[in-house]
Design goal:
The complex is a heterodimer of chains A (383) and B (302). By secondary structure, chain A is of the alpha/beta class. Helix content of chain A is 37%, strand content 21%. Chain A has 2 domains: 185 residues, 3-Layer(aba) Sandwich (Rossmann fold); 104 residues, 3-Layer(aba) Sandwich (Rossmann fold), CATH 3.40.50.920. Chain A is built from 13 helices and 15 strands. In chain A, the strands form 3 sheets. In chain A, strands 2, 3, 4, 5, 6, 7, 8 and 13 form an 8-stranded mixed β-sheet that branches. A 5-stranded mixed β-sheet of chain A has the order 10-12-11-14-15, sandwiched between helices. In chain A, a hairpin with a 5-residue loop joins strand 5 and strand 6. The longest helix of chain A has 18 residues. The radius of gyration of chain A is 21 Å and the shape is globular. The mean pLDDT of chain A is 97. Chain B has 11 helices and 10 strands. In chain B, helix 1 crosses helix 7 and helix 3 packs parallel to helix 5. Classes of the chains: A alpha/beta (383), B alpha/beta (302). Chains A and B meet through helix 2 of A and helix 4 of B. Chain A: Keywords: Oxidoreductase. Chain A: InterPro entries: 2-oxoacid_oxidoreductase, PFOR_II, Pyrv_Fd/Flavodoxin_OxRdtase_N, THDP-binding, Transketo_C/PFOR_II. Chain A: This is 2-oxoacid:acceptor oxidoreductase subunit alpha.
Chain lengths: 383, 302
């Protein structure tokens, strides 16, 4: 086994932010554009220390607009690139995230969610940016957002996020929360050989035949990096296959539909959920991120009291696991949704349940739910 | 413009005993809080204060220890200068004549994320005094490099080790960037020379339109210095020539202190944990850069 300083194979005791940085490095990320913000700063700090050790580049930007732009630029040049932030910085990134979607540039953005809006609660947990992750930039698009619940998943999902972004040519969001970011746990980093590391599909035609956004029946065009010898022309304006601006209704319809479809028609590959005790469940907790950890104990206690309880954990939140929720809604009498917000993903669940079962939100702000708070709602449900 | 000759000098005798910034939760020896406290003593209670996210907003707004005795607002990180522009315009629309709008922002909030807003504020000549308290890194989030972090500094995002020697860029020349806007009044200052700082704030107070003061403010937590040496070290920085005291007024630069000899730079650097790792060669880079800057300033400004 060859030694690669970017992959610290073995068992570690890391917090989620550090694990996320290690996952990115293990997947080949060699550029990070950083800007300090609580509670995501440790990702930037880890990358600033680790990237020079592995021949990568860390640069400190002047704000989050710059961070987001810099990773789009670095990725266009062919380097796997990442940035991290929290609420206020995430808001500043929105326009440039849209640019990345429109130009189809792979990159990874990590949001360690804290309480908002505005400065809110910098040091306390939130899941209040979940809809912003979906709709924060203007226009129509589909998004990929992963929700880790542990430092181990911060590592694993960093790899998965890069692979999905390279495969589908889209900025991928890791929507973690402060508890997961700052929690310290065992993280196992596998040997290099066991880590899947995808890289964007490159054009196979001679440079004079290259058409920037030609898909040839697939939904994701091959990507030439700047400097590969291909003519790379791209813009945030609505463009045709050549990459040239084409401000017509037809071009817009065609482009936006493909950008949406490349995600929607690949949901089977992108969407991941974890099921626990669902086979006979009558009451199901649907959760993501840190509240899902409390839900594990809540359903165990409920089972001990003779209640048929289960858990569906959303590892992918965007695109939304619509089919999984509808199936569950037809089986269960009640779905309970603990969220650290005033009710965001619960709306999606209500939409997908199509009235087949009762849907109850447990809203909590700034703190994670205790298992007993979830258990209480499981026990007191009406149906 | 106000005739500056008529402005009385501020001194211990004529300065108010009232406090407008007290009871805050800043670290012991915080230079930024000294800069805010002194400025507000000159500006007085008819002051609208705007601060971005940063140390002073973090330590000044912890209920029940609400440290500002003036009106004060925490803006977004990039937005203080624009918010202040709006406040000043609002005051003007209401016909308020005895008020002053002031921004207190750190080095990151000024030279990095808040720079665009500041530039616009000066361009429009909005009636705002913008004070940048410069502790040479993002201290509130735990010591990360900013555009005003000097060469060689170890921060948590410019770690010093065998691959990089800490911060590899020099401090932005913020004062001259601001002056290049043809601003009515700009000055540099240090909390190590409080009298000079107070009089610069007083001058800015009496000028209608955009004014700017860049005040050097020590940070024991981020610099690795004893808390009781904060004022001394802010004076040392000036005495060794790494920080200069100057003004820009009526389109002219003025050096307020032009010492024949500088105190040793290496003594200043060696006192601080953030520079501990620096080799003699690294320190020579700092000295060369200082000398280049001073020779240009002396040639052009004197």
């Amino acid at each position: 086994m060859s030694h690669d300083p970017a992959i610290r194979t073995g068992e570690h005791f890391l917090n989620g932010d550090e694990a996320c940085a290690e996952g990115a490095l293990a997947c080949g990320c060699r550029f990070f554009a950083g800007y300090p913000i609580t509670p995501a700063t440790e990702i930037a700090e880890t990358m600033s220390r680790r990237l020079p050790e592995v021949g990568g580049v860390y640069i400190q930007m002047e704000d989050e607009l710059a961070s987001m732009n810099a990773i789009l630029g670095a990725s266009s040049a062919g380097v796997k690139a990442m940035t991290s932030t929290s609420g206020p910085g995430f808001s500043l990134m929105m326009e440039n995230i849209g640019l990345g979607i429109m130009m189809e540039i792979p990159c990874v953005v990590v949001n360690i969610q804290r309480g908002g809006p505005s400065t809110g609660l910098p040091t306390m947990v939130g899941q209040q940016d979940m809809m912003q992750a979906r709709w924060g930039s203007h226009g129509d698009y589909e998004m990929i957002a992963l929700c880790p619940w542990s430092p181990q998943e911060m590592f694993d999902f960093a790899i998965r996020a890069f692979n999905l972004s390279e495969k589908y040519r889209i900025p991928v969001l890791i929507m973690a929360d402060e508890v997961v970011g700052h929690m310290t746990e065992k993280v196992v980093i596998p040997p290099k050989e066991e880590i899947i590391r995808l890289y964007r599909k490159k054009p196979q035609v001679p440079s004079n035949e290259y058409i920037m956004y030609e898909t040839n029946g697939s939904l994701v065009p091959p990507m030439a990096n700047a400097g590969d010898g291909y003519k790379v022309i791209t813009t945030g304006l609505t463009h045709n296959e050549q990459g040239y601006p084409d401000m017509t209704a037809e071009a817009h319809e065609k482009l936006i539909t493909r950008l949406c479809n490349k995600i929607l028609l690949n949901k089977a590959d992108i969407v991941e959920v974890e099921e626990r005790e669902l086979s006979d469940a009558e009451v199901v907790v649907v959760a993501y991120g840190s509240p899902a950890r409390s839900a594990v104990l809540a359903i165990k206690k409920a089972r001990e009291q003779g209640i048929k309880a289960g858990l569906l954990r959303l590892r992918t939140v965007w695109p939304f696991p619509e089919a999984e929720i509808l199936k569950l809604a037809k089986q269960a009498k009640t779905i309970i949704v603990p969220e650290i917000n005033k009710g965001q993903i619960v709306r999606e669940i209500e939409r997908c349940a199509k009235g087949n079962c009762e849907v109850i939100l447990i809203s909590k702000l700034a703190l994670i739910h205790t298992p007993d708070e979830i258990l209480e709602v499981i026990k007191n449900r009406r149906l | 413009m106000t005739n500056l000759v008529d402005i009385p000098k501020v001194n211990a005798k004529n300065m108010t005993e009232k406090e407008f910034f007290y009871g805050h939760k800043a670290c012991a020896g915080c230079g930024g809080s000294v800069a805010v406290r002194l400025a507000l003593k000159v500006l007085g209670e008819r002051t609208y204060t705007a601060l971005p996210a940063g140390c002073m907003s973090a330590v000044g707004f912890i209920y029940p220890q609400m440290a500002f005795n003036t009106n004060a607002v925490i803006t977004t990180f990039p937005g203080s200068a624009s918010m202040a522009s709006g406040i000043a315009a609002g005051a003007k629309a209401l016909g308020q004549k005895d008020v002053k709008t002031v921004v207190f922002a750190g080095d990151g909030g000024t030279a990095d994320i808040g720079f665009q807003a500041l530039s616009g504020m000066i361009d429009r000549n909005d009636d705002v005094l913008y004070i940048c308290y410069d502790n040479e890194a993002y201290m509130n989030t735990g010591i990360q490099k900013s555009g005003l972090t000097p060469y060689g500094t170890k921060t948590t995002t410019t770690p010093a080790g065998k691959n990089i020697p800490g911060t590899v860029t020099h401090k932005k020349n913020l004062f001259e960037i601001i002056a290049a806007h043809d601003i009515a009044y700009a000055a540099t200052a240090s909390i190590g020379y409080p009298q000079d700082y107070l009089n610069k704030v007083n001058k800015a107070k009496h000028i209608k339109g955009a004014t700017f003061i860049h005040v050097y403010a020590s940070c024991p937590t981020g610099w690795g210095t004893p808390t009781e040496t904060s004022i001394e070290i802010a004076k040392d920085a000036v005495d060794c020539g790494l920080i200069f005291l100057a003004e820009f007024e009526d389109g002219e630069y003025k050096l307020n202190r032009n010492p024949k000899e500088f105190a040793p730079v290496k003594d200043y650097l060696k006192k601080q944990g953030r520079f501990k790792h620096m080799t003699d060669e690294d320190m020579d880079v700092v000295i060369e850069n200082r000398d280049r800057k001073w020779s240009r300033m002396r040639k052009q400004w004197l």
